[in-house]
Each structure stands twice: as C-alpha cells, then as structure tokens.
Specification:
The structure is a single chain. This protein has helices at about 25-30, 45-75. With about 100 residues, it is mainly alpha-helical. It is elongated.
Length: about 100
Amino acid sequence: MKKNQKIKLKQENKKHKQVGGSSKRAKEKSAKGRVQSSSTGSAISRSADAKKDRLNAKNQQRKSKREASVLKLRGIGVLSSSSSSPPTIIALVPLSLETS
C-alpha cells in the first residue's frame, strides 16, 4: 500500500438512478415555459399509434379465430359441415305394448 493513499472509512452509497428518465415536473422545469410546436405528428407518436394499431389488429384476429373455432366445435354457423357436427341420437318409443 502506498504512503500517500487515502483510506475511506465511511460508507458511500450509490446514487439513485431513475429508470424511466426525468419526472414530469423536471421536464416542465427544464423547458422553462417553452411549448413544442404542434406539427402533423412526430415520428414517435406515429410509431406509437402504429404499434397500437398492430396490437389491436392481432387481438381482433385472435378473437375472430377463437369465435370461429367455438362455432365449429358446436356445429353452428357457416364453418360447420354435416360431417363435423356431433351425431344425432334417435329413439323409437312404442306407445302400445303390442309390437307389429
């Protein structure tokens, strides 16, 4: 160990890091009253809208496929066919004791 090296005896904790960036108040304070110009739409907002549209389309496709499969299993609707519908049970019950 060197002679002139300082030894730290006191614990130093790490500084807190903000994961999500600055807070809303800090952003407003740094803007100092300036307002962004309203254009037709920034690339960020358009990409966010595009992402929402993609997710919505996927959810709609998933929902329609699920409904189609349920209807097919139940044998109801346009997608059902006579071969895929469940078998029909028919019973003949005599009304009298005599059988012919």
